[in-house]
């Protein structure tokens, strides 16, 4: 039973886009690994940009700098 966890920042992602990701990941596992879709579980976790960081800074701070 495949379990796929996907983490993304919480901003501007629609329900339709998330549904497409779930469908396409499920299709890939079926095509490549021959896993039945009914066995495949996908979880999308959305994380606030204040809670996601790299390079010693939050994603919020990095994006503010890039925008300005």
From TrEMBL:
Name of the top EC class for this enzyme: isomerase
Domain 4-oxalocrotonate tautomerase-like: 2-58
EC number, UniProt record: 5.3.2.-
Molecular-function GO terms, alphabetical: isomerase activity
InterPro entries: 4-OT, 4-OT-like_dom, Tautomerase/MIF_sf
Active site: 2
Transport recorded as keyword: no
Keyword Signal: no
Keywords, comma-separated and alphabetical: Isomerase
PANTHER family, per database record: 2-HYDROXYMUCONATE TAUTOMERASE (PTHR35530:SF1), TAUTOMERASE-RELATED (PTHR35530)
Family assignment from sequence similarity: Belongs to the 4-oxalocrotonate tautomerase family.
Protein name, per record: Tautomerase
């Amino acid at each position: 039973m495949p379990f796929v966890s996907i983490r993304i920042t919480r901003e501007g992602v629609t329900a339709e886009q998330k549904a497409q990701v779930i469908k396409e990941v499920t299709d890939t596992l079926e095509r490549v690994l021959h896993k039945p879709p009914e066995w495949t579980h996908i979880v999308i976790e959305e994380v606030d940009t204040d809670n996601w960081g790299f390079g010693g800074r939050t994603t919020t701070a990095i994006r503010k700098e890039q925008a300005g």
